[in-house]
Amino acid sequence: MTLDLLKSHKNLFFDQTHFWPLLQNVTNSLKIEINLAKSKVATTSLVQIAQTITPNIFLVQKPYVRNGRIEVLPCQWTSWLSGNGKAGILFLPSRSSPIFLASGENTVIVKIPNRDKPLTVISAYSSPAANTEETIKDLEEVHTKLQNENLIIGADMNAHIFRWGYRANNNRGYQVENFLAEKNL
């Protein structure tokens, strides 16, 4: 399982299926995407990392959640979760004021206003035991509604794709590749 970044002129898609962060400078701010494996230690480490590299946003999958919220986060951070609690967006204090747009079963969506064009950030998770089509349908719907906006999609789709370092594609991989190709991501 590896990281890959596929991008067009205005959209980015992150697939994080290892526990390594993907770092990318976008619109002069730092975004990090990572799977926390439901670990309190990993979530605590994320807080420590944030003190060193000062990102604006974390797109997380499988965060450490208790009582419907991500635990061990500083109270100054803002967080949003998907309905199943497996996809989240963490926003650290900055000059921007993010706007919560929606939370589905597998996705959470936030818009960040900026001078030129707003940036919409989506975090998604598709369990290996679940049907990937449901999460892809959610992503397609958002992409269609916001196709003229800048988008960042951070997702753990549990998909195996050859060009991402797997020996071969699995069915989930083909579904994700088709989505990326159809949407020109």
Automatic annotation (TrEMBL):
This is Endonuclease/exonuclease/phosphatase domain-containing protein. It holds the Pfam family Exo_endo_phos_2. GO terms for molecular function: catalytic activity. Residues 120-185 form the Endonuclease/exonuclease/phosphatase domain.
